[in-house]
Amino acid sequence: MIILIILKPKLPVVLDNFKLYLSEKSDLTEAAIDKILKEVRVESIQKGEFLLSAGDVCKHAFFTEKGLLRAFTVDESGKEHIIQFAPENWLISDRSSIYFNAPSDLFIEAIENSTVIFISTEFMGVVSEMSSKFRKANDRALQSHIRQLQHRINQLLGATAEERYLTFIQKYPDLLLRVPLWMIASYLGITPESLSRVRKDLAKKNFKS
Amino acid sequence: MIILIILKPKLPVVLDNFKLYLSEKSDLTEAAIDKILKEVRVESIQKGEFLLSAGDVCKHAFFTEKGLLRAFTVDESGKEHIIQFAPENWLISDRSSIYFNAPSDLFIEAIENSTVIFISTEFMGVVSEMSSKFRKANDRALQSHIRQLQHRINQLLGATAEERYLTFIQKYPDLLLRVPLWMIASYLGITPESLSRVRKDLAKKNFKS
DNA sequence: ATTAGATCTTACCATACATCAAGGCACAGG
DNA sequence: CCTGTGCCTTGATGTATGGTAAGATCTAAT
What residues make up the domain containing B60? Predict the structure, then answer.
């Protein structure tokens, strides 16, 4: 048997998204940002690879430079429940696990081949020192996170599967095209079969797209 | 008609719980705490009175010195969904509303006659300036809050009504005795009738307490 | 080209929970 | 004492969603 290995020249990774992110959220000069970028840990993650598994202590937040990640839990009966998707320019992590240094109950997995930036607590500390704007942006993100969690709880308490689906496609129209439906079902808290029926009903009601 | 008004002498309000709270969460001297306590806004809230209504911008966090508060939303079909209970020593507020200066979608109501301390952003700022321990304790509370919201989402996604009820009484055994069952049902995201049946089933299975 | 695997759909039946209606109980107010 | 009101329960029935199984596509690997 002949094995053919093709070695592509390793291309320098482009971090345009993360660079833009830093320049928007902080008041650092471009020079300072470029310097930071050189120190930052970047990895290419293949579809299906895990950045965090339940039981591990989460040590980084992950910034999706390219691709798509998801965070999910697995309950006692083995069912997955998707907590969050993270396409380009999103941060994903287990905040409590990082903060309390406690084992996470989340899995974080790439669902497309992705380029991911590893953001450590130290990194956050350093940049926060350098830029008060950055600090404020992070405060704000934290509050938004809480707001979003509240909203999700409300939906789960009060809305039907169909309503939740409609909210989802309105909030994340791009994800609808990139994520398999069964994952959307998991995010919504229903089975893929139910989602299929919901979509059928909506189609019957002349719902477009 | 004769109207009889009895004027009780206004008793000085005791703030033992809040005082203890401050001394645990901060490294301030007792003298400093006593000074703070004199400035703090305290109100007696009758059962059924509201501290916040949907549409208002939330201006304070509320510390329950005595009594019991609840926060809830009302959905389009008029159904209430309880977000949180706050017995003694708990803080309750709409963080996002305060932070973003945006109209809240929460109601906060006293479900027992209560003594409530109004905690403004300025108050938080002042005490945070005085004590780094206090600042850290607040950070920690914020992270715990997120953790708790995550947990609730997980329960709603994955657990049955019965499981959620069992979690509730294990986590808040004291509330079970103080809160009407229909409110617990609302917190769990089920109807009072369903909760009644869940309890009946548990009783059949020899479940104690 | 063939196969295997993943995804999505559909049909049928099962179950959890909601809804509606009625009744019991406790407690407060006239 | 009676009466209303709020809370809880129970039964009958409805509905949304789950579970199982099968088939249709589609893609990727052999």
Answer: 16-131
